[in-house]
Amino acid sequence: MKPDRLIDSEYQDTLDKLIIKGGIIVNEGLLQKASILIAGDRIIKIFKQDEALPSQVRVIDATGMLVIPGVIDDQVHFREPGSTHKGTIASESAAAILGGVTSYMDMPNNNPPALTIESLELKNNIASKDSFANYSFYLGASNNNIDQIILADPSEICGVKVFMGSSTGNMLVDNPDSLEKIFSDSPLLIATHCEDETTIKRNLAEAVNKYGEDLIPFREHCIIRDRQSCIKSSSKAIDLAKKHNSRLHVLHISTQEEIAMIKEAQKSFPNITGEVCIHYMLLDNSMYDEMGSKMKCNPSIKERSDRLAIIEAVKDGTIKVVATDHAPHTLKEKSGNYMTTPSGLPLIQHSLQLMIELHLNGIFTLEEVVDRMCHSPALNFKIENRGFIREGYYADIVMIDLNKEDTISTSNPAYLCGWSPFYGKTLRSSIVHTFVNGVHVVNNGELTGNKGGKKLNFYK
Prior knowledge:
Elements: E1 18-27, E2 30-39, E3 42-48, E4 58-61, E5 66-69, E6 71-76, H1 89-98, E7 101-106, H2 117-130, E8 134-137, E9 139-140, H3 146-151, E10 160-164, H4 176-185, E11 190-194, H5 197-211, H6 221-224, H7 227-244, E12 248-250, H8 256-265, E13 272-277, H9 288-291, H10 304-316, E14 321-323, H11 351-360, H12 366-381, E15 397-401, E16 406-407, E17 426-427, E18 430-436, E19 439-443, E20 446-447
Parallel strand pairs: 1-4, 1-5, 6-7, 7-8, 9-10, 10-11, 11-12, 12-13, 13-14
Antiparallel strand pairs: 1-2, 2-3, 5-15, 15-18, 16-17, 18-19, 19-20
């Protein structure tokens, strides 16, 4: 940490800046021992192992640690405004950086929903003061706000969120003419939640008739919100995207059939992409009786064969984006019966570590983990200067210790809701340091109190 000689003239402007020294950098398909010089909010030089380093620069010794770009999560629900008893931009972005997530894209189903450009500005203003991580906010779609969608600036807004057939709020887009207009005229990437409302309502009525409203078991969730509801809705979205050559991104895919549809569509329409969330690779319907409401989410977690197909799709690159759909609810809210318990899981603090668990279990390489959580989200959303460790890019950097365990307990996670569906699980890695735009926001696994978040920008 102490300077050992006069600063080299080439790096006069790096006094009081930082070198992350000697870590194993995982980046762009390679693992290599190197050092990173940060000045201000940027990476200004990457030194190979045998290159001389500048002196009189602050140093963090990364020997033996993995050094990766910050994780980009394309789907979170930070609950602000409207449901701040569940989470806030401040609380949930703090949990994010503790887990190595340095950028997030927040969903519009707030109270009130974010259906106008003005409502996005409200969220941006909150985040500019409170967010520990970089941020962007989806514009919500409705049956009658195409005027707002057309006005949206794709360099400023990550996408438009379309609830294709089912929504937990009042954002259901079920008018065929509205859907046609959105897919034909949107200047933004179209991110979809694909479940068919008619199918779900029919299945729910059958479950109520069979069990009564108060006694529906949680294992019925994947029957009520079944695979056919997802297949029907995703098929409609893909057909519309093909018709209008739209940028379609199908969120939280839960069935092997949807994967097959996307894989086939990508042969001719590379703008059709998909995302999966970490819990769909770890849980299946055999676990409902044990976990109950703590694994109730939409779309539902389905069969083991779907879980394995999702893993394979991430492995082979059919699906290149892994996220969380982080959706906190209080334990009190999650303690009701099936009909009263809301869907959604808090996950963002441990998603990277859970993916590393899959790596340590021999499923993914480290290069694949970094691609699916860092590189590909940046490329898919066309995020400017993030998602990679490159000279000139923003210094969003995470350091990971593979030799230090981390157990998820009542004091860990940092979510405002205070719980995790993976409570008690011991993870074989720890997030040691996180930098957001060169700001040291997590030091030795603890929040520093510094906030480094900036609004994400996108290239067209």
